[in-house]
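Input record (one chain):
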Amino acid sequence: MSDESIASRIDRLVAEEKELREKEQEDREDEDSLAADRDRLRAVEVELDRCWDLLRQRRAKEEFNQDPDDAETRSAGTVENYKQ
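The corresponding structure, as predicted from the sequence alone:
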C-alpha cells in the first residue's frame, strides 16, 4: 500500500466520520439508530488510528532509508492501547 493510497483511505474515513457525526445529531431521538451510529463511528475512529499509524511507520522507514513497504498495519488493540 502506498502513502497516497493510505492518505486517500484517511480522506474517505474522515468524510465518513463527519457524516456519522451529523447523522448522530439527526438520530438522537431514535436510540437504536443512535447506537448504530456510535458503533460505526467508533469503528471509523479505530480504522483512522490504524491508517495514521501505518502512514507514520512508512514515513519513519523512508526517513531512515529503510523500505517503507516493510511497514505493517498493526492490530486495533495495539494502536488503541499506545501509552502516551
